[in-house]
Amino acid sequence: MSEGALVVSLGDPAGVGPELIAAAWAAREAKLLPPFVVAGGAEVIAAAAQMRGLSVPIREVFHPAEALECFDFMLPVLAGADGDYRPGSPDRTGAELALASLTEATELARSGDCWGIVTAPIAKSLLAEVGFAHPGQTEFVAAACGIAAEDAVMMLAGPTLRTVPLTVHVALSAVPALITADLILRKARIVARALAQDFGIDRPRLAIAALNPHAGEDGRMGHEDGAVITPAIAALRAEGIEATGPHPADALFTPRSRATFDAALCMYHDQALVPLKALDFDEGVNVTLGLPIVRTSPDHGTAFGIAGKGLADPGATIAAIRMAGEIAVRRGQT
Hints:
Elements: E1 6-9, H1 17-26, E2 36-39, H2 42-51, E3 58-61, H3 67-70, E4 75-78, H4 92-111, E5 116-119, H5 124-129, H6 137-144, E6 153-157, E7 162-165, H7 175-178, H8 181-199, E8 205-209, H9 224-238, E9 242-247, H10 249-252, H11 255-258, E10 263-266, H12 269-280, E11 285-289, E12 294-298, H13 315-333
Parallel strand pairs: 1-2, 1-5, 3-4, 5-12, 7-10, 8-9, 8-10
Antiparallel strand pairs: 6-7, 6-11, 11-12
Helix pairs in contact: 1-2, 1-13, 8-9
């Protein structure tokens, strides 16, 4: 792969994104981060860095290639959209800046001008007020790439665990009807391919979580595990994918069990995110699988309540940038 840079979107300027981007650049040498350029918000990041007591000289650039010339000694930020830094006070103007940054960053990754995109946290409700019609950034980036939302798979990855929620932002009461063999097969195939291509795992091992307690106990606690999940696992194994389960979720994430799989496919949002955040919160990364471009994001939200107070940990942002760079390199070598 030729030398290039990642692009980082600003996120909501009233959240922790700007200060964590500045903190990541300040830690670039210690954390061995690849070069990155920020899509807009030069004044916002400068103010966030100053608030945090960081020395982060900023250079406005007009093309991502310029980032390579200055990244070692200045944080490159694309000239253009900008605004005021008002941490903890989200508003419509900030949402417009967040959307402009996300749109530009996505296009730069999609066009190949950047290796990939790292998205800082947004406030979805505010973005909806300025015309954002997607459930989240994952769906926005997928649509920009011409990929169906169901083929853009969210994986949460940390140093000790990778999990994939098969259903995401839906009510728990709706989950059983959404769990189908086709859903499991479709997403498991995407996960297996991505683990091989993006994470360098030759024979990915997938653990499929049960939906019900004790995997249904032969139908006494629900029929989905035996009627839907078990046949899907058999079909995956017939395709040569190393899949096991359905595993009762209360035992799936113990240290001994985690050593037996490379990713756990979970039936619903909290089943996947609770163990990941319990184990790897400060280094958790949201990776979108199934896209033609690389996209990662820190696995936390805008945290308006602590924005501008110097309390936010940059670990997940640093991990997201590092992981995006590693995946980009692997894709360039395949």
